[in-house]
Amino acid sequence: MSRRNKLVLVLMLILGLGVFGYSLRDIKISILIHDFTTINLWWLAVAIGCMCVYFGLEGLIVKLLVEKRLGKYSYKSALRIPLIEQLFNGITPFSSGGQPAQLVAMLQSGVDGGRASSILLMKFVVFQAMIVINFLIALIIGFHYMVAKMSYLALFVVLGFIIHFSVIVGLLLIMFWPRFTKKLIKVVTWPLKFFMKPERVSKMAANLDNKVDLFYDESVRLLSERKLLIEVVIVTFFQLLFYYLVPYFIMLALGYSHVNAVMVTCLHILIIMVISIFPIPGGEGGAEYSFEVLFRSYITNSSKLVLAMLLWRILTYYFGIFAGIGALGVKPDPLKPHDRQKIENEEAKEKGAKTPK
């Protein structure tokens, strides 16, 4: 981690403590401690296990994608990728630092930059697609509840959906209409010449064109390997399911055994969509507020509501940050590549048979 990243991490931890402190302003510490000591540790362990499975399944996805194309990739090296992603997502606005950090982590284990970028982009496409699908389901089930409880929060949910949906549309354009996408890049970057040097704009456009080509090549390859694609989609579905179930198991740990698991899961999906549009790393402040407002009808005890929010935030945000710090200190195993000549021959055949439309 750079010095700047360390400073941001410290600031985020301080800000998080401040938010926690503000949430506890009207709660007696003695009551909070009593509620904590009465937690069902079994259900709390299940909630923790859900987060571990969430990270573990993403590591499995990385392993599947790398080994299919490049060679033997240890699970230890693959697991580092999502953990490091969680760390840098958590300390950068709009989770923008996760992708570059994953790329660096893959380079450290011997995966070349072009292939690493393509693999991460494909993982990102599937992940975003599953988020949008899950959100649409949650919107149908839980949106009326959110509107009834807080209409203005619903506007943030819709805005978050528009952002995620736009990302998916952009990626699909690259996958199926690369030439149109390149023309669109020229149209979008042309006005920048009025504010930047023409040479710099041209270089930026050329770099984007190169990324479009790399992504297109990898998408064609992945779409031709339907079995692998189906495996990644299924694993991603269960990965997100375990993540979305965390609040439900926290509520069971606090003694709320009669809650509707489907509704709680849908509300969590909507909260995640709200968090995604906050520019502050981790959606700090907005995440805690959204949780308390939406779950207040289920957890009527104010002390337990705050405790549930604290546990949820620690597991879904801070747990990943500290796990990522630990992953930075783990040395990855080197990639054991397949026969390079065989791979190059296969790629030559693919490029000859398939060209952008």
From TrEMBL:
Keywords, alphabetical: Antibiotic resistance, Cell membrane, Lipid metabolism, Membrane, Transferase, Transmembrane, Transmembrane helix
Annotated membrane topology: Multi-pass membrane protein
Cross-referenced Pfam families: LPG_synthase_TM
Catalytic activity, reaction form: L-lysyl-tRNA(Lys) + a 1,2-diacyl-sn-glycero-3-phospho-(1'-sn-glycerol) = a 1,2-diacyl-sn-glycero-3-phospho-1'-(3'-O-L-lysyl)-sn-glycerol + tRNA(Lys)
EC number: 2.3.2.3
InterPro entries: L-PG_synthase/AglD
Gene Ontology biological process terms, A to Z: lipid metabolic process; response to antibiotic
Stretches the record annotates as Disordered: 335-357
Entry's localization field: Cell membrane
GO CC entries: plasma membrane
Residues annotated as transmembrane: 41-66, 124-146, 152-177, 228-246, 258-280, 305-330
Coiled coil regions, renumbered to chain: none
EC primary class: transferase
MF terms in GO: phosphatidylglycerol lysyltransferase activity
UniProt key word Nucleotide-binding: no
UniProt xrefs under PANTHER family: INTEGRAL MEMBRANE PROTEIN, PHOSPHATIDYLGLYCEROL LYSYLTRANSFERASE
NCBIfam families: flippase-like domain
Role according to the record: Catalyzes the transfer of a lysyl group from L-lysyl-tRNA(Lys) to membrane-bound phosphatidylglycerol (PG), which produces lysylphosphatidylglycerol (LPG), a major component of the bacterial membrane with a positive net charge. LPG synthesis contributes to bacterial virulence as it is involved in the resistance mechanism against cationic antimicrobial peptides (CAMP) produces by the host's immune system (defensins, cathelicidins) and by the competing microorganisms.
Family (UniProt): Belongs to the LPG synthase family.
Protein name listed in UniProt: Phosphatidylglycerol lysyltransferase
Source organism of this protein record: Secundilactobacillus paracollinoides
